[in-house]
Amino acid sequence: MDCYLGIDLGSVSTDLALLDSDYNLREKIYLRTAGDPINVIKKGISDLKNKINSDFEIKGIGTTGSGRKLAGVIVGADLIKNEITAHAVAAAFKMPEVRTVFEIGGQDSKIIIIRNGVAIDFAMNTVCAAGTGSFLDQQASRLGIAIEDFGKKALKADQPVEIAGRCSVFAESDMIHKQQLGYSQENILAGLCNALVRNYMNNLARGKKLAAPYVFQGGVAANQGIRKSFQEEVGEEVFVPENYDVMGAIGAAILAANSVNDNNLTTKFKGFSMLDVDYKSAGFNCDACANNCEIINIFADGDLMARWGGKCSRWQF
Amino acid sequence: MPVVTFPHMGKMELPVKTFLREMDISVIPPPQSSQKTLKKGKEYAPEFACLPFKINLGNYMEAAELGADSILMGGGFGPCRFGFYGELQKYLLQEAGYEMEMYILEKNIFHIKDIIKELSGNFSLTKMTRSFHFTWSKIKVMDKLTEKLYNLRGQVVNKEKVENDYNKLLKKLDEAETYREIDLIEQEIDNFLQIDNAVEKKLTIALVGEIYTVLEPFTNIDLARKLNYLDVSVYQTLTLSHWLKNFFTPGSGQKKLVNKAAGYINSFVGGHGLNSISDIYSLKDKVDGVVHIMPFTCMPEIVARAIIPEVIENENIPVLSLIFDEHTAEAGVKTRLEAFIDLIKYNKAR
Predict the structure, then answer these.
(1) Is the pLDDT of residue B331 over 90?
(2) Does one domain contain both A219 and A140?
(3) Segments forming the whole domain that contains residue A301
(4) Would you say residue B328 has pLDDT above 80?
(5) Are residues A53 and A111 in the same domain?
(6) What is the pTM of this model?
(7) Across the beta sheet with A303-308, what order do the strands follow?
(8) Residues A101 and A231 reside in one and the same domain
(9) What is the pLDDT of residues A205-215, one digit of tens each?
(10) How confident is the model at residue B189 (pLDDT cuts 50, 70, 90)?
(11) Is the peptide bond prior to B7 cis by the omega test (within 30 degrees of 0)?
C-alpha cells in the first residue's frame, strides 16, 4: 500500500504521521524531542518500522516544525514546509469549511485565518511563554497535578478565579495569592485556562476577524479546560480534531503527497537503512567578520551532508 | 582638526563619506554594524529605547576606537523619539567615558551650514553647494542600483552573480570622483545582468515600515536578501534619497501621502506610519503582498499596525507585520516569511 509520511520536528515534541493514499491516518508517533533532534528522528523512524509491515510503502515524505530542515536532510524529505502552512493545510483537510484555527504547542502558538480552504492571514507567538503549553506544564507541576488531569479538573470549577494573563510571572504570583486565599484547585485551574486564552487572544487575535467554524489543535488541545475557555471567549463551538496532536505532521504528509504525485516524482526517502547511518552535527564560529556566525555542519558517517547558519554565502554548501 | 564619524543606516556611509571628503573634513566611518556594535550600544542605552538608538550608540563607540572624535547625527521634531536621540546619546557617551563632540543636524539648512563650516578646514558656500550636488547625484544612482538588486535577485536563479555585480558597481560608485564616472555607472546599471535564467513564477513583495529598519539589513536580519533567496522580488518606496528629501524639506509630500492613504489615516503620526498605510493601499494592485516592519516600541508604526487589519480585510492585500529587537529569532522570522509566501501563492492559484 502506498503511504506518505509527515514528520513534525518541534522544540518540545517530535510527531510522525503516516497516511494512506486517501490521507487516512494509519500510524502516529509522538515523542519528546528532549534537545536531541537527530536521535529523536531516528527513534521515530525505528518505531515506525516496528509498527508497520512490508505492505506499507513510503512514496513521499514531508518535514515541518522548527527543525524541519534538519529532519529533511536526515530522512531525505521530498518537501520541507513551515509549520504554519502545514497546520493550515491539515485543518482545512479535516474540516474544509474551517475559518479560524487556534494552534497551541509547547513553545509557540499560532492563529490562522482561513477563507475558502486557504489561509489569508496568520500570526505566531514565539516570545511570550504565557500563551503556550510550557506555561501550563509549569503551573501544573507547581500545583502538583499531572498535566493530563489539568483539563478534567478545570472543567469541575464552579467559579473560576480571575488571574492576570499578561505575563507568566504575574500570573504565577496572582495564582499563589488566590491559592492562599483558599480558592479550590479546580477554580484556580479554570482561572488559568481563562488567563491563557485571554493572553492568546490579546497577542495573536487582536484586530483579526474571527469567524466560525473554529478548530483548535496542537498538543494543548488535549486540555478540555482550555477548549471550554476558547468556547466562552468566542461564543461558539470550538472543534478539536481527532488527531489534534499530530496535525502539523499530517499537513506535511499531505503536502508531500501532493508534491510527489502532481510532479510524478519518486520519493527521496533514504529508506530504513538510514537507521544504520551515524549522523553528527558540529559547529564552529566563523571569524571572517564581526557577526561571528555560528556555522553548523551535519555529517553522515563522517561525510559532510549539509551546512547552515551563515548570514552570507561564504559557507554555502 | 576634528575627525568626524556618523551613525550607519544601510548604505548611507557612501554619500556621507563622499560629501565630507568633498568638504575637506576628515572622516572615519564606524565599522559595519554587527552583534558587537549592538552589544556595546545596549550596555549604555535605556532598555526601552528602540533598536536603532542602541546600534547607533554602538557605532559611535566603535568609531571612537578607530580615532573619531566628533559625531554628525540627525535631529528633528515630531512624534517619533528620534529627534531626541542625538541629545541623549551625547549624554550617554559622556557617562561612558567617551570624549566626543556631538553635532546634531537640525532640519534647517542654515544651521547645517554653520556646522559644516565649523568642521571644514576649507569652507566656502559655493563649495558646499557643489559638494551637495555631487553627493546627491551619487545617492540617486545608489538608490537605483539597490532597487535593481532587490528586484533582479528575486527573479534569477544565479543570485550570487547579481550580488557580485552589485558589489562591484557599488564600489565603483564609492570611488567615483567625477560626474562622468557616475553617469557611466548609471548606464551600466541599466544593462547589468540581463535575466538569462529566470525563476518559474515571479512574485513581488513591498517592504514598508520604519525607515531605519527598512534600510538597515543588520536590523531586519537582511530581509530583502532572504525574500530574494525565496525567489521573491522586493520593492520599497523608502530610500535614502526619499529620507534626505524629507529631512531637508520636512512636511513635503504629506498631502499626497494622505490622499494616497484613501481615508485609512488622515494625518502625520510621526516617523513613517503614514507612509506605511499609504504604501500598502497604493501598491495593492502592483505587488502580491506587503511585509511591514518596525523596531520594538516604535510608536508611529504601532499606529500603522492598528490600521492594517482593516486594510487587509477591505482591500484583499496580504500584509505581514514583523517586529525587530535585540533578539534575532531568525528561525521564527523565516517560518513566517515562508508561510506568508505560501499564503500568497495559494491565494493566487485559487
Answers:
(1) no
(2) yes
(3) 279-308
(4) no
(5) no
(6) 0.89
(7) A279-285, A294-300, A303-308
(8) yes
(9) 888 889 999 99
(10) confident
(11) no
* Res B251 pLDDT > 80: no
Q: What confidence tier does B340 reach under pLDDT thresholds 50, 70, 90?
A: very high
- Angle of CA points B303, B307, B310, to nearest 5°: 170
- A52 falls within a domain: yes
- Tell me yes or no: is domain B3-121 CATH 1.10.600: no
Which tops the pLDDT comparison, A67 or A291?
A67
Q: Where do the structural domains in chain B lie, given as residue ranges?
A: 3-121, 138-152+156-198, 200-350
Same domain, A73 and A7: yes
Domain-located, residue A313: no
Look at the block and give the residue holding cell 559655493. Answer: B126
pLDDT for the residue A62:
97
Phi, psi of B250 (to 5 degrees): -60, 145
User: In Å, how far are A14, A18, A90, A237 from A246, measured between CA atoms?
Assistant: 9, 10, 9, 21
CB contact at 8 A, A295 and A285? yes
Strands of the sheet containing A79-80, edge to edge, are A25-32, A13-20, A2-9, A57-64, A79-80
DSSP SS3 for B304 = helix
CATH number where A125 lies: 3.30.420.40
A298 in Cβ contact with A73 (< 8 Å): yes
Q: Which residue has the higher pLDDT, A247 or B309?
A: A247
Query: Is A180 a domain residue?
Result: yes
Q: E strands of chain B, at which residues?
A: 3-5, 26-27, 70-74, 101-105, 203-209, 232-235, 289-295, 319-324
Chain A residues bordering chain B (beta-carbon distance below 8 Å):
66, 81-85, 108, 116, 118-122, 124, 126-127, 207-209, 289-292, 311, 313
**Which CATH number does B200-350 carry?**
3.40.50.11900
Q: Characterize the bridge pairing of strands B289-295 and B319-324.
A: parallel
Fold match flag (B3-121 vs B200-350): yes
Residue A317 falls within a domain, yes or no? no
pLDDT surpasses 90 at B47 = no
- Answer yes or no: is pLDDT of B197 > 80: no
The chain B residues in contact with chain A (CB within 8 A) are 31-32, 34-37, 160, 163, 221-222, 306, 308-310, 312-313, 318, 327, 329, 331-332, 334-336, 338-340, 342-343, 346-347, 350
Nearest to B343 among A116, A120, A127 (CB): A120
* Tens-digit pLDDT profile for residues A254-276: 999 999 999 999 999 998 888 88
**Looking at the structure, do residues A260 and A158 belong to the same domain, yes or no?**
no
